[in-house]
Task: structure prediction
Amino acid sequence: MDWTAVALPTLIGIGVLVAITAATLKVYGIPSWYSPAMAVVRAAAQLAILSLILSAVIGDIRWVWVALVVMMVAAILTASRRLHGDRRMLLAITVSMLLGASLTLATVFLSGAIALTPQNLLAIGGIVVGNSMTITTLTGRRYRSSLVERRDEVEGWLALGATPRQSTLDLARSAVREALIPSVDQTRTTGLVVLPGAFVGAVFAGASPLEAGRFQLVVLASILAAGAIIAVSLAETLSRAKTVPTVV
Result:
């Protein structure tokens, strides 16, 4: 492919899309209307660096593992920052995300559902880590907001002698359910409303639609499994806290 021939149209198209996004938000008076544009610029820089790195490591599975570790560390720190976490929160996030991702990837590759190759490991591992970060953030935010909204109820149970976990178990369960809604909806509508990136990418790479569908189904099941483990683990840890946090 002649990249010089496609670079300019690509830049023009992306520039127009970013301008439309920023203009729409600014006209409507949305604060930080420029944030999506900055996100695109950052994504472009990160993808450029990632492309250079992957071209050097994709053939060696050991370096792919290193890349996934870096992704996981970045995901953990990002989720912790989103939740304004202290050391205890950082530890809970780390344990939850490592547990969910490791168990899921072990199941996928040890079962033989997908062959363990550098390309497959990077693709599925990256998707699982990215979605794990999102589910972690959603779980923590929903739990904290529910806890503050129903603070009087929780403190009433505590005054009656209930443990922190007993007082907040319903809130924790609700946080888990709501954190998984986007992933569940994506799975339900795959092939009907949504054409997932893994499926489209596999087809473009030359795989048959049947093989691409098999790969995508494994990806979706992996996202749900990792998300369920992470959300339950984090919510359970938060529900055992001895103090009622404020929303940040």
